[in-house]
Amino acid sequence: TSSRRRQPGTLSLPPIYGAWYLPSPIRGVIALAKLCMDEDSFLLALRRDYGQVVHIPWPLNQVLVLDGRLIRKVYRAPSSALSFAPIQHGIQTLAFGTPRRITQSAGLARMYDAHAKGLTNLRLDAPIERFTHVVQAKVAQLEEQIESSPAQAVEIPIVKWVVDTVFEAATSGLYGEEFCERALEAGLRGEFGRFDRCFPLLAAEMMPVALYAFVPRVADGMKGREAMLSVLARWVEDGLPGLDEGVIRDMAHIGSAEGYTSKEVATILSGNFWALHANASYIASALLLYTVQSEILDQVREEIDGLPQQSGDTANPVVTLKALASMPVVTSCVQETVRTNTSSFSMRVAEEDFVLSESASGEGGVLIHAGMRVVCATRVAHLTDGLWGDYPESWIGDRFAAKQQGDALSAKMARKMHGFGGGISTCEGRHLAMAELKSILTVVLAALDITPLRHVADPRIAVKSSDASNLWKGLQPSRDFTRPGLGAFQFGASDVMARVTKREVS
Length: 506
Ligand code: HEM
What we know:
51% helix, 506 residues, globular, 3-stranded mixed beta sheet
């Protein structure tokens, strides 16, 4: 291969992936195939064979950064050197259908700005209240089913239940109850799934729009997108009924004031709608499954039982943003699930020749030519950095807990966990997502006992046996490997059947 180790202090180009005797595009196609077949093995092999940085030739034509320290250098680089805007605008047009004239406009920049401001902790009380309210109602429905069953128990596919519940709760949280009702009536849960399945192909930005109709998965995804846009556009046209304030209202008002049509505003809101649903629900299902099968369950329940209760009922804690902020073990479980169950590719375009250097003085390093795409592969850092301690591939619920690690190490881990990406492209919904995840774990575990029974396979997803060094031996759904670098792991139709009973309080 063309793998070359760099000498410290010298300036070099990134090594190029693949066997030296193969033409460059063949190497690129091999890399792409391997990435889509088994992302983890491929990325770890790159780290082992090429070191911290490698150039993957066309069709990806990207420089992959595979080391935590260098990834943070990319995150710290100013946008004048490594920019994100061209990628953001490309996805807005290719995936969400926003006209190019709008993606280049100052109006869209103002909408993005309102989005970032509207998702800070200061403005999340109402969304989290609505989110929690829906989860409580869904748990109450399960309790009724349990009470009316002779065995006082129900068996449910837990991933599906969590994903459906979070879809409804998160929609109600950001868009309000009325939009949520419209979305459920129009079957947007299914339409979203159709669109989301083709998202990896759109986000790769390798397919011209003219070809969308000829690729079955994309053609089907476009029908899902149209359905989402039509419900969103009608709701915008009707004056956003059921939503008096919040980030979505702010964005829609800016768009309308710019003179964008309801459909154009809907294309911009659909970016938020996708981000709202593509990650958090899958992380929530993994979080619940990991927690109920781990020894940390008692500590998690202790924290939940410590919350103020509605009329002295331990099955019904008062869940507010403030209460959720004071749950260190629950927070650690959530952070650990985001660490172990995400792979994100933060992308930048080099606006000028850029040197990615390990040394504090900036001497030596890897030269990245202007125009090149730089991609931070956070998954490798999550699996290899010494910072995580033993068994980085395993889920260890209290890995991030200050009580376990000490304040300094715990804070350092939180800073270096890049499941939400980082720098100028960092996930704007991370505070909302963290609170949603803590909320659903709290509400479910306060009221229910969940016993995973058996794995449910999706025939399209190969079941991989857990790595010998992975301590995690519990039941979990199989990972869909066709979404490399797109955030939370998804599971297709793979699931875990679980027995659910009302919580037995000892
Ligand atoms: C556990 C749940 C979530 C995970 C793991 C996650 C992960 C990510 C990742 C990896 C990125 C790309 C970061 C980068 O390129 O550096 C991202 C971007 C983004 N996320 Fe999330 N996300 C989650 C939940 C949410 C939620 C609930 C929202 C709410 C709307 C949201 C909104 C966004 C937005 C708007 C961006 C794009 C930021 C930009 O273009 O500058 N995310 N997310």
